[in-house]
Amino acid sequence: MLKSIDNYLFEPKSSIDLNVFRAIYYGWFAVFTFSWYDFAGWAGTREDLYAPVWILDFLAIPILSFEALLFLSWLWKASLFFCAVGLFTKYAKWVAVVLGFYLLPLTQSFGRVDRRVALFAIGLLVLACCRSLGERFSVDSLLASRKGQRTYGDESYNLWGLRCIQLMTVIMIFSAGVVKWMRSGWDWVSSNTLISYFAFSNTEPGYAPYGPAPVDWGLDLAQMPTVTLVLGAMTIIIETVFPLVLFSKWARIILVGSFFGSLFVFNLILGPPILMYTGGLYFAWVPWENLGEAYRTRNIMLLLK
Fold it and tell me: Which of 22, 121, 193, 224 is the most exposed place for a label (fewest CB within 10 A)?
């Protein structure tokens, strides 16, 4: 069993998959945080409403001033961008972790904790620990190549970070399905749960602070109980069987693809938070190196290697 785990985490693999994912993951969150997140706004929150999550409570970190939060937020967003393009990656990835572990928990310290924010922060930490981050498809690798200093690390350590993020994704989705079954059972599907979500997301203020969803399809879907019943059933079934992606390559293609596609549609109907924190995680499942080889050879079966 230990050998199987070792092979699963440390199978020799080039850093292509890791670094394509790096560019997408950091770029994804850089776009979302630049577009929607204003961390400095938390500076004006009343102290009696501040209920710090455990990491901020343990470190006894207060809410900083508006100017300090504004500076740190822009520094953090810049570090995400630098990691995405692979510039000063060795330093930018740790800046992203340190500031992310303050700014992200801060947003969760006022009564509501979103598990997706925790996954994003853990993802930053996992990637920062990967030795080969930035050695391909980056400004750093381009500069090193021009100087004749371009080298690749031990291929045994290129896969474990992606595997950890894949496991995080499975746990997140499967636990969501289990909670639905435990709390509501099939009533989650047959009740008006999705109908209320669809209606709420298309009325002010929607998912504050982002406002209503980009499209108003939710109001139409809320009047189609059969459609919402099918969507609810598909959601809870896919979440429940999602761990199959760890054992079957066909399940990986079907379930990950369908789940990401459904999240994209729900993002349009329910609003940006649906994909903001977790959307980038699903790209860890794409075999980018095999995808490139399949395109060159026109052999789609390479995707199942």
Answer: 224
